[in-house]
Amino acid sequence: MTVIEIVQGDITRQRVDAIVNAANSSLLDGGGGVDGAIKRRGGPAIVEECRTLRATTLPKGLAEGAAVATAAGQLPAKWVIHTVGPGYSRQEDRSEVLRSCYRRSLAVADELGAATVAFPLISSGTFGWPMGDAVTQAVAAVRATRTNVRVVKFVAYDREAANLLRRTVDLFSAFTVSVDARFADGLPPKNDDVPSRAPTDDDTEDDEEEEDDPGTPPALLTLMHLDQDGSESLTAYEVASVCGHDRDAVLDYLQITKEQEVVWLEHAEIALDEGDSEEADVCDHESRSWARTYESLRSALWLIALPGATRAAPVAAKHTPTSRLLARMLPE
Question: What segments bear the compositional bias annotation Acidic residues (predicted)?
Answer without folding.
Answer: 201-214
